[in-house]
Every structure is written in structure tokens, then in C-alpha cells.
């Protein structure tokens, strides 16, 4: 990968695009486990099937009660475990709507498309796996969801020093990746700061999610009516002002270890950033989406009825399936993992109550 970068000055967005998505070198394009115990990180959708079952309860209620078309589109399907859990619950709980429905996964990684096809084999009559949402039958009406999608989008990095805003770049020096700063010239970044009214303090680093902004408007072109669920980790504009976030949030995860330097292990580790929830809301509203609510994930799961999935049993074996199932539920609503994630709901040309 270093050879591909020699004699080039890349913005962080270009570097992340290369490190994560390049067909030859990109981390997400590699044929290796990335999620779970054998990978580099764990997602909440990998905590058993509980999260998928609870979201399925919500989706089914929309379909049965509010005549939402029985079409679910998951963007960035990962291992396919979330999709499996949703389909499993959907088939069991609402066989009639399931028989009429379809679950579409939009996945850029060829490796993950193969893994999804394997795990979803029992449901393939109701599943379609595509590489881009531009392949959707347009216009799409139904439910759109994503789990930890935007945190893996490329971002630009800026920094304010002595009253001047700089953009940070990546170059190769002595066979090492190093950072350089240059006075900000990118007009798209300048426009982003102005329209979002972002004010940096001296010494502050900040990520600029131009790729997320672009994606929102591209996705909007494929949608006619939709309820859009975004599950991720991030901060509001007010939370970004906290001194502990002064250095931004760009980081890596390598073999379940937090790596504070995103230039280490290029192409071999996940690179991630906390998303800007107010930016997602702002550009969604510009696209014509109505903001419904932003919940902490544990609060969302409780309102969605996760406790109804607890299993009453008298098995004294702490390693029994029932005990493991109930422990997974408790971890999602009582541990840090439930509080670290949020759920945002937006709607396009719909006005459906999420909870009644």
C-alpha cells in the first residue's frame, strides 16, 4: 500500500478510502474475518440474535399496522447476522407479510456478500444482495436500516492552530506514513463549516464527513417513502464541544485493540470515527427527511420491548442457552455497549409513530 502512496499527498478522506475500500489493499475488501472474536471488533448486532429480533418486532408492527411495504433494505450488512435475526423473527411472528416481503442488503465488500449469502441461505427466496443502492428498484418504499455504517465513511481532518485552520494530509516519508498540515483550501470543507456553524477552538482537531453528506443525498434519490433507522456511535454538536473530544475521534481497531494512530497497520485494521448526529439530521432535513428522534440504544431497545424476550426458566446451569440468552439482554440494556450506541430515526414522506 505504501508504494501506491509514494510521491502523493493524500487527504485523510483519500487515505481512509484507500485503506478501507481499495480493491487490492482495502481492509474491508480482504478475505478475512473482521467482526467477532476472530476479527478486530464486535458490533451490537453480534450479541446473539436479540438486537435483530427486537428491531424485527418494530418493523413488523409498521408493516402490519401502518401498511408500510414489506421491504427492508439494510445498508452495509456485515456478517449477515442482523439480517438473519430479523428474517427469523419476521417469518415466525408474521408469516403472511414475510411471504410477501423481501430483505435487500447493500454491501460493497465481495467477501461480506459471500458470507451473507452463506448465512442467509435458508431465506434466500426472500433476500437480494447487491453492491450499491443504485441497484435498488427505484423508487424504493419501505424500511431502511444500517448498523455502524457511517462511522466507517472517509472523513477529512482539520485542526485549528494559532487562529488558523489547517487541513491534515498523509504522506510517505522514509517508508513511514506521517501527517502534514497545510492551510485549509478545500472549499467544500469551508462551506461545511459555514452551513453547519461549526466553530473550533485553538488546538482542536475535527473530522469533516463530506462522504456522509454526499451519501445522504444519493440515497434520497433512491427513496420514495421510507422509515430510516441509523444505529451507530457519535455525538451531537453540543457534545463535540466537550474538552475531552478536542482531539477528534479518528482511530483504529486492530485485533480488538484500540489504536490511537490511524496511520498504523494501513489496510490491516479498521478505521473509524464517531459520527456527527446533528449533521445527519441537518442534511437529512435538507433532503426532505423528517427527524423523528435520537435515542440511546439501550433506551430504544427498552421502549421496543426487549424485556419481553427474556426467557422464564428454572435451569440452574449458568451456561445453559436460556441463561446466555438472558445475559445478552442484560448486557444490551445495562452495560456500556448499550449506552455507547445511539439510534436515529428519520422518515421520508411518512409520519408513523415509532412507539405507541
From TrEMBL:
It holds the Pfam family Methyltransf_28. GO terms for molecular function: protein-arginine omega-N symmetric methyltransferase activity. Signal peptide: none annotated. Keywords: Methyltransferase, Transferase. InterPro entries: NDUFAF7, NDUFAF7_sf, SAM-dependent_MTases_sf. GO terms for biological process: methylation. This is SAM-dependent methyltransferase, MidA family.
